């Protein structure tokens, strides 16, 4: 009995302990489960963090990938070099393959980098600012005629200029080599910098240069390459007139000087071939070459937005008034000066080619001097002409002379109300023949020059002015000494 009584307290304690253990067992199991899950998650996070860090380090050493939800990084401007300027077609640019993109949120397309030669300035003359774009300081470029005409034909739709602008006159010299009367022109331009621009188109074979102090220095525009040939004119009967007549019909260009029988001249032709014979020689002349040269001069001058008036000058041309007078006359004029008249003769209507019809009819056909002056609006139309230029280029062949008919006919058809139908350059054809009268030293007198300066003409369609002609030709280099002597007192050119 005593023994049983002694065991009762022990059983009671054991039962109490077991009861408490059963009560806390779920908590212990839940705690163990939580600790186990925590250890597993902690190990997984450490492993993932290590792999992610290694991946980012590897990626950043090759390329900086763009962050999520941001725009792609800017593409650097491709370097323009001779190698990629000569590539044909667009060059495709593909992002590196190791760049990871979020394809669900944004997809980066391939970027096409086009040939930049046709859309920017030439590779050797990059435009860095607005000033250089509107006032090109260098006339040298590597544009083809097609690219040049396209670039020059651009015109802003907004009439107001967002910069201070002084209107300038573009003097475009069409010469064979150097400007023969350069000293006289230097005096004419002196002191008027900023009010004029100079452009010189010379024979492609001419490699000379002007002194750095000259206004003509660095003003030669690129011209087409030519084929140089030695030409000898011979006729069996020694008839000089017949030889010159044939030359004028076959070689209608101002680059040709007078020939004597049996004389030899070095001349340049574009895309032609020469074959000499006992009685005659045949030249396969590039069509329309003089008009191409004139349009090339206009296009180069149009690149400067400040040029508002454009005057074509020959190598034997002189100004009859000082710069201020000529500048005021042109800037206040409401018309252009392209001589255009209808001449019912063999040298007028007789040169019309019926194949030009219906775009150009005989009624629209005009003749005139090639030495023009025009405003910017007309100059833009001339370099942009894709309608009448090809017609004349194809059908204005011997005996048609493009330099005497293209511009007069074009202006008569398109802009008759804006044209004065006269030239500002005086020349004497009164003696007849294939060439106008030439003036040498003894013929240049004060009375002669005063007479040229005082001839009445209509100005701006209504008022008459004594300044009918602003320029005159053909003055040979031997006349230079007298021109320099008389210019201060007669022309007021100091």
TrEMBL record:
Keywords: Glycoprotein, Glycosyltransferase, Membrane, Transferase, Transmembrane, Transmembrane helix. Its main location: membrane. InterPro entries: BC10-like, Glyco_trans_14. GO terms for molecular function: glycosyltransferase activity. The chain crosses the membrane at residues 21-45. Residues 65-75 have a biased composition (Pro residues). Pfam families: Branch (PF02485). It is found in: Membrane. One of its GO terms (cellular component) is membrane. It is a single-pass type II membrane protein. Residues 59-100 are annotated as: Disordered. It comes from the Eukaryota. This is Glycosyltransferase BC10. The lineage of its organism: Eukaryota, Viridiplantae, Streptophyta, Embryophyta, Tracheophyta.
């Amino acid at each position: 009995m005593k023994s049983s009584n002694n065991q009762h307290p022990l059983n009671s304690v054991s039962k109490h302990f077991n009861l408490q253990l059963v009560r806390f067992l779920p908590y212990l199991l839940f705690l163990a489960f939580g600790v186990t899950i925590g250890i597993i998650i902690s190990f997984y996070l450490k492993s993932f963090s290590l792999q992610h860090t290694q991946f980012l380090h590897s990626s950043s050493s090759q390329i900086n990938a763009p962050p999520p939800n941001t725009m792609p990084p800017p593409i650097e401007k491709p370097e323009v070099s001779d190698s990629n300027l000569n590539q044909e077609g667009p060059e495709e640019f593909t992002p590196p393959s190791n760049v990871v993109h979020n394809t669900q949120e944004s997809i980066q397309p391939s970027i096409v980098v086009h040939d930049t030669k046709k859309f920017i300035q030439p590779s050797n003359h990059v435009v860095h600012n607005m000033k250089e774009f509107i006032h090109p300081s260098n006339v040298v470029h590597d544009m083809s005629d097609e690219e040049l005409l396209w670039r020059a034909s651009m015109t802003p739709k907004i009439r107001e200029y967002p910069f201070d602008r002084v209107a300038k006159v573009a003097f475009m010299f069409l010469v064979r080599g150097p400007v023969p009367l350069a000293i006289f022109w230097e005096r004419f331009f002196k002191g008027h910098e900023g009010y004029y621009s100079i452009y010189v188109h010379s024979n492609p074979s001419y490699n000379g240069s002007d002194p750095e102090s000259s206004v003509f220095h660095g003003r030669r525009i690129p011209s087409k390459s030519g084929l140089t040939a030695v030409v000898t004119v011979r006729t069996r009967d020694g008839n000089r007139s017949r030889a010159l007549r044939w030359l004028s019909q076959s070689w209608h260009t101002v680059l040709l000087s007078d020939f004597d029988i049996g004389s030899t001249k070095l001349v340049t032709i574009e895309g032609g071939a020469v074959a000499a014979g006992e009685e005659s020689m045949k030249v396969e002349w590039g069509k329309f070459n003089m008009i191409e040269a004139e349009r090339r001069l206009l296009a180069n001058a149009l690149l400067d937005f400040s040029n508002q008036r454009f005057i074509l000058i020959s190598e034997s041309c002189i100004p009859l008034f000082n710069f201020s007078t000529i500048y005021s006359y042109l800037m206040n004029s409401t018309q252009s000066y392209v001589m255009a008249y209808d001449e019912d003769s063999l040298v007028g209507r007789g040169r019309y080619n019926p194949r030009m019809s219906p775009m150009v009819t005989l009624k629209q056909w005009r003749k005139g001097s090639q030495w023009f002056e025009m405003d910017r609006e007309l100059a833009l139309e001339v370099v942009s002409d894709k309608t009448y230029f090809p017609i004349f280029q194809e059908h204005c062949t011997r005996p048609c002379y493009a330099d005497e008919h293209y511009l007069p006919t074009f202006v008569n058809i398109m802009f008759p109300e804006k044209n004065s139908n006269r030239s500002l350059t005086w020349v004497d054809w009164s003696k007849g023949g294939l060439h106008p009268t030439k003036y040498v030293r003894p013929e240049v007198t004060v009375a002669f020059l005063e007479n040229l300066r005082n001839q009445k003409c209509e100005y701006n369609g209504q008022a008459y002015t004594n300044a009918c002609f602003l320029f005159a030709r053909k003055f040979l280099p031997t006349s230079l000494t007298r021109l320099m002597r008389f210019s201060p007192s007669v022309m007021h050119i100091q």
